[in-house]
Design goal:
- Helix content is about 40%, strand content about 15%.
- The protein is an alpha/beta fold and about 325 residues long.
- The protein has 2 domains: about 60 residues, no CATH class; about 240 residues, NAD(P)-binding Rossmann-like Domain (Rossmann fold, 3-Layer(aba) Sandwich).
- It has a 7-stranded parallel beta sheet, sandwiched between helices.
- A hairpin with a 4-residue loop joins β4 and β5.
- α4 crosses α12.
Length: about 325
């Protein structure tokens, strides 16, 4: 647009690189016109010059546009006490989510993330519980619905082997028993079914909603010695595609985000081992481990109105580990 008949400008917003990029790589990703600008500061930019004067912004009659704005929608994020789930919760808070239900089987972890969201000026409530426990998750969903009417955005992030991985055996598949399979199937498949089932009635009433399930590349291309985990993640992806076809007519979108080797508390110490890191990263086109921010960025996008015409899809965030469709 023209200001005072002199130049054509656009309004942009400086990215909050503190949340969206690892701090040590932020500088190389930020365009030069962001240099010295505070995160989230409004900028007027004509391609050569910038002006951050709020008075000029008001004179221009322009408003900053964040296509990832969650528009006050409520959210429930499972396994959000640490790692990717925690980062998703903070991303949502930074992008205008309404009430955020922070789920984790560890109540203290959930409450800690709630405190972080409050510090950001967001709204959040701890909803501790095991996603494999239907009754517990029913109470968690009801807690959100009682306050705001519905869960608008569900992120099925809880994964790995759940609260009690003691039943897992380091045995070849042909020596395992069904008891060894249940931790993988319980969290990664049954937990997804449970939470999706519980949020859908109110989403259908509102004729709107988004469900994003975090799967793994193990579910897309298979992973040796993780047969049951791979099966559970592939099952969650297949369920999501089918559900997308079923509920699309109600204005509800269902998608998956597939991640690969990501630096979360569960594996951070292993990734510090130089030999392990060297061997593992030799399989990645981008030679670094994923960070929780990498996955959270995609989950935020798929949950937002920016992806309003996207459903039934799986988006890999994997550093080029594989290129399978």
């Amino acid at each position: 647009m023209l200001i005072g008949g002199h130049c054509q400008i656009q309004t942009i917003v400086a990215p909050d690189y503190r949340g969206f990029l690892p701090v040590d790589t932020a500088e190389k990703y930020l365009p030069v016109h962001y240099a010295g600008v505070k995160p989230d500061e409004k900028i007027l930019f004509d391609g050569k010059h910038r002006c951050t004067t709020n008075a000029l912004l008001r004179r221009a009659g322009e408003k900053s546009m964040n296509i990832l704005d969650l528009e006050g929608k409520s959210a429930m994020i499972t396994g959000a006490g640490q790692g990717v789930g925690r980062r998703v919760a903070l991303h949502f808070a930074q992008n205008n989510a309404g009430l955020i239900g922070v789920n984790d089987f560890d109540a203290k972890r959930a409450e800690s993330v709630v405190a972080e969201i409050h510090e950001l000026g967001g709204k959040a409530v701890a909803i501790p519980g095991d996603v494999t426990d239907f009754a517990a998750m029913e109470q968690a969903v009801e807690k959100i619905c009682n306050e705001v009417g519905a869960v608008d955005l569900l992120v099925n992030n809880a994964g790995n082997a759940g609260a009690d991985p003691s039943k897992i055996a380091s045995l070849p598949f042909w020596q395992q028993t069904p008891e060894n399979w249940e931790p993988w199937l319980g969290v990664n498949l049954h937990g997804v079914l449970t939470c999706s089932r519980l949020v859908l009635p109110e989403m259908i009433k509102k004729k709107a909603g988004s469900i994003v399930t975090v799967i793994s590349d193990a579910g897309r291309v298979g992973e040796p010695n993780l047969e049951i985990y791979s099966a559970a993640k592939a099952g969650a992806a297949g369920f999501s595609r089918a559900l997308a076809k079923t509920v699309g007519r109600h204005g509800i979108r269902v998608n998956c985000v597939a991640i690969s080797a990501t630096r979360t508390p569960a594996v951070a110490s292993l990734m510090e081992n130089e030999e392990y890191a060297r061997k593992t990263l030799s399989h990645y086109v981008i030679r670094r481990f994923g960070e929780p921010e990498d996955a959270a960025n995609m989950i935020l996008f798929v949950s937002s109105a920016a992806a309003s015409w996207v459903t039934g899809q799986t988006y890999p965030v994997n550093g080029g580990y594989d290129f399978a469709v």
